[in-house]
Design brief:
By secondary structure, the protein is α+β, with helices and mostly antiparallel strands. The chain is about 50% helix and about 25% strand.
Length: about 190
């Protein structure tokens, strides 16, 4: 069976909806530490599965014998299945949640769950202000935070959440705005 490559499907574009003369400047995902914290919580639930064998052997040895052993094994298998599903969801949501900065616009793809996502875009000409925020101990130590883009468009505030190096991203967005022609900036403010 022949599966066409993504480049053939999308043409020369790097993401769906990319315009002909649009150049991708930056693709950002949440900082790895945010994913690591969620993974740590998942590992806690995995540890519960491992602790059940110790607990049953020490405090409930009757559950290790037939017919209870089969029931315990079935429950552990179902728990393991949901645990793997949880890991798949964690990775999928992390990987599909992204922000794309191009020379013409900002694209924010928010993956809320496996079956629910939202795509927002903001043309740089409609941008009014960009702010970077790093708040807290871990964000300061690992250099991640939020970037807020104020606009005159329908969505007043565009937020890139928990991204690495938010100050550099805000500077890049400001620099791209400054490179726009003056008439395009004026047109964006009046629309």
């Amino acid at each position: 069976m022949y599966l066409p490559s993504l480049k053939k499907i999308l043409g020369e574009s790097q993401f769906p909806g990319q315009q002909e003369n649009e150049e991708v400047c930056l693709v950002i995902r949440q900082h790895w530490f945010v994913f690591f914290m969620r993974l740590t919580l998942w590992l806690l639930f995995a540890a519960i599965l491992l602790a059940t064998d110790w607990y049953i052997g020490r405090y409930a040895p009757v559950l290790a014998n037939s017919p209870y052993a089969e029931i315990v094994s079935l429950i552990k298998s179902i728990y393991l299945m949901f645990l793997m599903l949880g890991l798949l969801m964690l990775w999928t949501i992390y990987y599909l949640n992204m922000q794309i900065v191009t020379n013409e616009r900002l694209v924010d793809i928010d993956q809320h769950s496996l079956l629910h996502h939202k795509i927002s875009e903001l043309y740089l000409s409609r941008m009014q202000d960009v702010t970077a925020e790093v708040k807290g101990l871990f964000p300061t130590f690992f250099n991640y935070g939020n970037v807020y883009i104020q606009s005159a468009a329908e969505v007043e505030r565009f937020v890139f959440t928990n991204i690495p190096n938010p100050t550099a991203v805000a500077k890049l967005i400001s620099d791209l705005y400054e490179k726009l022609p003056v008439d395009e900036k004026q047109k964006g403010r009046t629309e």
